[in-house]
C-alpha cells in the first residue's frame, strides 16, 4: 500500500519536475527553420544557390510564369509579335503587352516584379548575416558575397529598367511592418546597383577560377558596362569593357549556331547565362514551346521540335518573328537561317524562332540555357561606347568581329551616325530574341518612333502580322507607347505607398 | 465505517442548522424506509426535504430516515437517478416509500470535464446522450448517429463515402484558417483527430460541452466545443453477455440522381448545336433515335450494397474488480462500385479495487479499419491530393456522352469514351477507372489508458493516469494504365502508384486532486490538476510511376520514383497544462463554478507560449424558492449564466517558425546544387485564437417533470484569428501568419422533451430541438476588407459586417431573347442575342465581371436560418418504435457541378432541361440557358445566381420498429429483441441533388468555413434497410 502511494507520488513529482520550457520547444524536424540556419559556410553556400533559383522562373514560361523575360524584353519590340488564334482567347496578358494596352493586373508584369524581389530577399538574407559567421575558407565567403551583390544588382537593374521607381529593400523583411516600403527614385536605385556591382567586381573570381554557370567578375563587369550604356557614361563603359575584353577569358565561338548548341553551355563566348537542365528534376526549360506558330498538329510540332511523341499545340503562338525583322537581315547573313525557320500551315508559311531549339526527348523538357550576356554583345557595347565618344574608326574592329562571323563584309570608314545605326542594326540581328531589342529601343530613345510606326504597319495590314482574315489588333493597340510598365495591381493593393 | 460516520455527522450538522430555522408550528417526527421500486432493496442516501424549507435529512445505508417536520408538511424524496416524489405528511409519523428509477433521469449524472455532476447542479450548457438511444441506427460513426438529437450542434453528412464525411459544428463554430472541429475526449483523454474509427457500440454516453464554462478546462483546445465520450464499464452485479447484430442493404434513391440527357436527347442536342452553328452534322449525331436510352453512366457507377454489424458485449463485476469487453465487426460495401469500409474492434475496460482506498483501471481498445474508395468526390477536373491521379469520378461519369458504352456487349470494358475528331476532350472510360483504381487505407489504432486513484480520506481523491493513442496506417493507391485524368491524354496512360505509411503516437499524463466537502448546506468541490501531452507523427510517401505491367504493383517494378511527390514529414506538438476548478453550491439551490486553465503549447510563438483560460458560471434553482410554491405545474426551474475565455490552438504545428525550404536547388553547368532559402516569415508572437463566450440558459420542468424545456442564448466573440495576411511580395514573401480580426457568433437554442404518454402499456416521448445560429465578421486584418474562398475562385466573399463566406456573383436574369431586348438591356462586351443576361447591379449600363466594382453582389448564404431535430419514441407493450428527423432551413447551395453538366459547348453530357435553351428569337426556351453558339463562357464561368439553390430540407433520418419477445424469468435469455430500421428514410427538400447536406471542395474534400455549401458532386448518401436483433444472456 505504502509502496503504491510512494510510486504515485514519484510519478507525479517526476512529471512536475519535467515541466520545463524544453518540453514545449519543438522546432520542425522535416524542414529547417531560420533559428538553426545561416550558421555555417555550407548554409550560405546553399543560400546563394537558392538565390539563383528564381532566375529560371524569370526566364521560363508557364501557368505561373506567364510570358517570362521575353514577354517584356522582346515581345513589346518590333522584332516579334503574336499569331492570333480566334479559338484560344486566354491570351490577354501577352497580346496586351505586344499591342501596348497593358493593365496593372497583367500576370507577366506581376511575375517579373515579384520574382526579382525573391532574388533580392534571398540576397539580402545572405548579406545581412554572412559577416557574423566564420567560414572555413575566407575565399568562399568573398565568392558568396560577390554572387549575392551581383544577383541583387542584376535584379534591381531589371526592375529599374522595366518599372522605373520601385521599393528598395536592402535588409531582410521581418514582418508586416517592414514589408511595404515607399518607392525609391531610379537615381537612388542606380546608386545602389552601382555600389553592389562594384562590390561584386571586387569580390568575384574570374570565369576560369569560378564554378561553371555562376556569376563571375566578367559577368559583373558586363553588368556594370550595361548600366553605363543605359546611363550614357560612355567612357566609364569603355574602361570597364576594356578590362573585360582584355581579361582573356572570353572569345567568340567559330559559328553563330555553335553559341546555341546544347554542348556549348557556358562556352568561352558566354558571360552569364541562366542554367537549365534537361530531365524531370524540375530544372528544364520549355520557353521555345510558347513560340510555336500555333495551332499546330502533333506532326507539325514534331517537325519543329524533333520529338517523336509530340502532342498537338492548340493555344496561341507568341514571339513570332515579324516581317520587319526578317527584312532587317542583310543578304548573306549566316545568322538568319540559324535564328529563324518557318513551317507551312494550311498553305501559308509562318516563321518561328529556331536558334534556341536543342535536341531533347520529352515534349516541354529541354536543356537550353538562357543567354543573359554574351561576348558578342560586349564587343557591340564596346563599339557603341567608343563610337559615342566620337571615335567611329575605333568601333570598327569590335563591330566587324561580330559581322565577320556572320559572313558579312566589314564596315569601314563611316561617320559616327552611320556607325551608330550600323551598331544598332547589328545588335538587332546578332542578339535577336535575347531580350535586348526593347531595352535598346528605350535606352536609345527610339521606342516611341519605332513602335508607333510598327503599330501603324500592323493596323494597316494585320494579315501580314499573322492575323487570320477578318481579325486585327484592338482599337486601343499602339495608341500610347510607354517606356516603363505599371507596378503590379496586386502589390499596389498591399503597399500604401504606391 | 468511515462513510457512515460522516453521514451521521452530516445529519447532525443539518439537525443543528435546522434547529435554528424551525418555526413554532406543531411538529412531529416522521420516519420510514425508502426502497427501490424495482428491486425492493433499501435505497441509501435518499434526500428527504420538507418542502418550502431548508429542513432536510438523508436516508442511511438501510434506507431509513427520520425527520422532524410540521404535521401538515409535504416531504420531497429525491435521489440521483430516481424520480422524486412529493408526499403530504397529513399527520402521519410513518411513511414508507418506494422510488422508481427515473427513465429520464431528472437528476441524471452528467459527465462534465474532469468529473461528473448531477444535472441539477450543472451551470454550463451541456447535453448528454446515452448510447442506448442510438443503438439501432445502422451507420458506422457515432457522430452520424447523433444527427437530429443535439441542440445547437450541426452535424452534416457532407458526403456519403462509407465511414467518412461527417462534419460536426458546435454552435456554428467557424474559423478562417484554424480548424473548426470539436475536441473529442475519450474517457478523459483528448484524442487527436476525430472518433470515426471508434466502434459506437463501445460508447456508454456522449456529453457535448458547448459554453465556455463547460469547456474552459480544456483551455486552448476548447473553442470549437468539446465532445466527451465515456466508454462502457462493467456495471451489472451478475455480469452479462449480449449480442447485437444487424444486416441490410443500401440503395441510392432515384430522387436526387442527376436528370441527364439520354442517348437520343444528347445526340439531338449535338445535332442542333451543329445546325445552329451552320455546320454539317457529323455522322454520329445524324440519327439521334438510333441511340434510344443510351448508356446511363451515373447509374452504372452505383449499386445496391450490403451492410452488416455484429457486436458482442460481456461485462462482469466482482468484489474487487469489474470488466467490460466489447468486440465488434462492421462491414459496409459502398453504393459506388469498388468502395467498401470494414472495421474490426475490441475494447476491454477493467477496474480493480486494490484496497479500500486504491483503485486501478486499465483499458485497451484496438481498432483495425480498411477502406477502399476511388476518389469519387469533387469537380470533373479534380485530381487526387498531391498526385496526378483523377478525382471526381462520379462527376466525370455524369458528364460522359451517353451515346458511348461503358461496357461492350461482350462484357469487356472499352478503354475510352470518346469519338476521335469529334469529342473535344480525351475521355477515359470512367466506369472502368472506378473499377480498376485501387485506393485503400488500412489503419490500426490503439487507445489505451491506465490510472491509479487514491482516496486517503473521505472526500479527497488523487488520480494519476497515463493515456496513449497510437495509430498506424498504410495507404495504397494504384492507378493502372487504363486510367487518366480529364483533359489529359487518352489511356493507356502512365500507371502510377502512391504508397504512404503514417504513424503517430499521442500520450497524456494527467494528475488530479479533488476534494469535496460540505459544511452544512455549503457544498464545495475543488479540483486541481496538471497534465502533459505530446504528439508525434511521421508520414512517408513514395510516388511511383511507369509500371510496365498493371498486374505487378510493387515498388521495384516501377521504373520511376517521382521525387517531387515523395516525401517524409514529421509533425510534433506538446502541451503542458495546469487546471483548477471550484464548485460551490448552497443547498443545491445557488450554484457557482469557477475554473481556470493555463496552457503552454509548442505551437505558440516563443514570446507567447502560455495562455490563461478562465471561466465563471452560476446557477439558481429558483423552483426551490418559496415564491414559486404556487406554481404547482412547474416542478423544476433553474437559471444559468456563464462567461469564459477559451482558445483554438489548431493553428498548425510550425506556423510560428520561419521555415527554410531546402529544395530551392540550382543548376550550374550540368550539376544540380542544393539550395536553401527562407520561404516563410516567422512570428514568435503567434498564438491561439481567443473566444469569449457568454451563455444564459433556462431549464424548466413541468407537470412532475413530464415536460422539460431548455433554452440557451449564447454570444461568442472570436478574436486573434489565425490569418495568413497577404503582404506585398517586394518583401520576398507572400504572406505573414498573424492573429487578427474578429468574428461574432450568437444564437438561441431551444429544446423540449415531453413524455406525452406514460403508462404501463404505452409510452410516447417527444424530443424537439431547434437552434438559430448566426455569425458576423466584425473585422479582418488591417487593410483587408474582404477575403475569398481558398483556391482563387472568388465565389464566396467574407467581409466585415456580413456573415462568413457569402456566395458572390452576378444575378442571372434570363437570356436576351431578341434584338429588342438586347438593345434595351445592359450587356457585357461579349454578349449577343441569345446569350445569358445579368442584372446591372452597379448601374453603369454595362455588365462587368472580374474587376473592382463590377456587377457581382451577394447572391446566397450557405448558413441556415435554423436547424432542428425531432425524435419520437414509442413503446407499446413489447413493441417499440422511434423516428428521428433532422432538418435545416434557409441555407443556400451553390451547384457548381452545373459548370460541367450545363456546359453549352457540347463537350459533356448535360442536364435534360438544357433542351429548353435559347435557339432563336422564335424559340427562346425556358430562359434558363442561352444559345450554344457563342459566348457560352459567361454562362459557364461567370458565377451567377443560376447556380444557387435553396438547400432547406427535412430528413427522416431513421425509423426503427422493434419487438421484444416475452421471456420466462428462468430463461437463460434475459432479453431478445428483433427490429427493423430504415436509415435516411425520406428526404423532403426542394433541392434537386441527392444530398442537401453536401458541402465539399473542388477536390472533394471537407470544406473550409469560407467556402461552405458547394455541390461539386459527391458520393450519394444511401437509404439503408436493416433487420437486427439484440440478445442478452
From TrEMBL, chain A:
Keywords: Cell outer membrane, Membrane, Signal. The keyword Lipid biosynthesis does not apply. SUPFAM superfamilies: TPR-like. It is found in: Cell outer membrane. Residues 350-497 form the RagB/SusD domain. Residues 42-227 form the SusD-like N-terminal domain. Pfam families: SusD-like_3, SusD_RagB. Belongs to the SusD family. This is RagB/SusD family nutrient uptake outer membrane protein. It comes from Flagellimonas profundi.
